[in-house]
Amino acid sequence: MRCALYARFSTELQNQESISDQFRQCERVAKIQGLEIVSRFEDRGISGGTSERPGYQALLTAARVSAFEVIVCEDISRVWRNRSEYGQRSAELEDLGVHLLTCVGDDTRREGWGLVLGIKQAIAEAARREISYRTRRGMEGLALTGKSTGGKCYGYGPGEATTVLNIFNMAAKGLLPSQIAKALNREGLPGPRSARWSLNAVKRVLGNPRYHGTVLWGRTETKGGAQDSRRKRHVLRPDGPLVSRFDPNLVIV
Questions:
Q1: Does 224 have pLDDT greater than 60?
Q2: Is the CATH number 3.40.50.1390 carried by domain 2-128?
Q3: Residue 234: Cβ-neighbour burial (10 angstroms; 0-12, 13-18, 19+)
């Protein structure tokens, strides 16, 4: 029987070498099972909670034209960490006559493995959500202690504080954000990420409480994403930010 190998890692947990490590294990399983490896598919640094993975989509496309009969992967969590996508695609693969074989012993060629894989997939999705929770919890702790939670805020690089102060001074004189942006661009002052100043960039500076020394973290919460972990929306928390503190070292205005 012909087989395709699939490997994936998420940036939160693995590294570049993980792909070759997974393929090595899959090759061993394929050899033991007497399978012919005809193709390999991979996704680097992409969560299994989304179906928007180039390698995964290429794998499905190949399966639909009967390019192989078996998919070999390290574990079911490499292919799916989302119950919605798992339900649809596992049923489709079954109809196509494509089986799933994993390095940890799962084999849909055997009777009764559908239920086992469904349970394991639910566990994989729960693990993904738990990782997300622990990450947020750790970042909240960093914010509470005044440590960086990632990202850079314009205004704290060389010469940027002066520009921020000029923006607020121009606004105090009655200039509109669009007028301020034009004035900054005329002076050749680079904006955030070295881009030209825009109306929205000036608005973001004027509306950022950090320049007054107020640090806010956790102002929004994530909603949705049940069908695709990448398709989420962020809404303001009804009870306000999780962290709000004053840091005199950040005061510019």
A1: no
A2: yes
A3: exposed
